[in-house]
Design brief:
The protein is mostly helical and about 400 residues long. It has helices at about 5-20, 30-45, 60-70, 85-100, 105-110, 110-120, 125-130, 135-155, 160-175, 180-195, 205-225, 230-250, 260-265, 280-290, 300-315, 325-345, 350-380, and strands spanning about 270, 275. Helix 4 (about 85-100) runs antiparallel to helix 6 and helix 8 crosses helix 16. It is globular and about 65 Å long.
């Protein structure tokens, strides 16, 4: 794929993702979790003060990121806010995920990145959850940013790379408590991929590690302390893990079997409506199966395969589940689907084989696009929609 075609495909995918995420953001009523976040933001907007509450809330980045948008729209009270203002921040971050794929071109190839961009744009799960005022898309963005920055640091250890990884990790931690799953998963994935590819353990200098960890802690402290106006906030963020461990292991009504996420993604049927993202899952299985081989594998396919498998396994093992909790690991799955599609494309050498592969991809993307439109704009609050909770 030449650079011009690749750039056009990614650019159109980015525009498509933005359109699906921002059109008619007021179409569905506010979910009670969204309203919870809106009230918390309204307090910050009206008083200028925010204090982290570990009992039943998440990190503050979503609120601080919403503040300038609300001010630009002339909204200064909770009563003046609307769905568009609140949901636009997750929509922007859900779209911007595609931009994080660009630094991976050298490691994955243009075909994998272009396919991943389109699958991200059209995925019903990623589209639907980008249209809700909850932390998930912001969290997924910072989690993937941390993985990318850490992988780049492993490839070429430099202070700037360590600093960037630390900042991204700190922002992920300041967004949601489940960062304790994705950050270790990213670290293990990068170390494991480096070892598997024969490079040995990355040679990270202690001063670079100190810089990265220090930057991450500093960012987390700034946000959880509400820019040093609530010093106890950072300590409370650590104490919150007790609450979430207890809830995650069974002290909650939201308990589901280990395969809950995969049943939603693979196939679900309710009241005459069918839903499936099996197209992505099949391609991802191909990607994972080729990631560690010599022919199609490499450092970055191995990193993404390990990250996807580890994080998905942990999220699946935790009994406490909601549909949006699949987002952080599903971003990795979508990237692995891009890797799988690129591997199949390289195997299809004849014109007939490539024609069939292209037709398969177009039909699969068309199906995903229709389902995204149905989920987000036709049945956004219908209980037959598996992403409604």
């Amino acid at each position: 794929m030449n650079k011009a075609v690749w750039g056009a495909l990614v650019g159109i995918a980015l525009a498509t993702a933005l359109m699906l995420r921002v059109v008619a953001l007021d179409r569905k009523p506010m979910h009670h979790d969204e309203a919870n976040q809106a009230v918390r933001f309204g307090q910050l907007l009206e008083t200028g003060h925010y204090a982290y509450d570990r009992a039943d809330h998440h990190g503050p980045t979503l609120y601080y990121l919403t503040w300038p948008l609300a001010r630009l729209r002339g909204q200064s009270t909770l009563a003046s806010l609307d769905e568009r203002t609140l949901r636009l921040v997750p929509a922007i971050f859900g779209t911007a995920l595609i931009l994080l794929y660009l630094p991976l071109v050298a490691g994955l190839g243009r075909t994998a990145i272009a396919v991943s961009a389109w699958l991200t744009a059209l995925s019903p799960a990623l589209t639907y959850n980008s249209r809700a005022y909850i932390q998930e898309m912001v969290f997924a963005f910072f989690a993937l940013a941390f993985l990318v920055a850490l992988g780049r640091f492993a490839e070429r250890p430099r202070p700037a790379a360590a600093l960037l990884a630390g900042v991204c990790g700190g922002l992920a931690y300041a967004t949601k408590e489940t960062s304790v799953i994705v950050i270790p998963a990213a670290i293990v994935a990068v170390l494991g991929a480096a070892w598997w590819r024969g490079a040995g353990w990355p040679r990270w200098r202690p001063r670079d590690l100190t810089l990265g960890v220090g930057a991450g802690v500093a960012v987390a402290v700034v946000f959880y302390s509400s820019f040093f106006t609530n010093p106890a906030g950072f300590v409370d963020s650590i104490r919150a893990f007790g609450v979430y461990v207890q809830r995650g292991l069974g002290a909650s009504p939201r308990l589901e079997a280990w395969d809950y996420y995969w049943r939603i993604l693979a196939f679900s049927k309710s009241g005459g409506l069918f839903w499936s993202e099996a197209f992505i899952l099949v391609l991802a299985l191909v990607g994972v199966s080729t990631a560690f081989g010599r022919r199609f594998g490499g450092f970055w396919p191995s990193v993404l395969a390990l990250y996807s498998v580890i994080s998905a396994a942990v999220f699946s093992a935790i009994p406490y589940k909601t549909p949006w909790n699949l987002v952080p690991f599903y971003v990795g799955v979508v990237l692995m689907a891009g890797v799988g599609a690129a591997a199949l494309w390289r195997l299809a050498r004849s014109r007939a084989a490539r024609g069939l592969a292209l037709a398969f991809f177009v039909v699969g993307c068309g199906h995903l696009g229709v389902e995204s439109w149905r989920a987000s704009l036709v049945y956004p609050a219908d209980p037959r929609n598996p992403y409604v909770y």
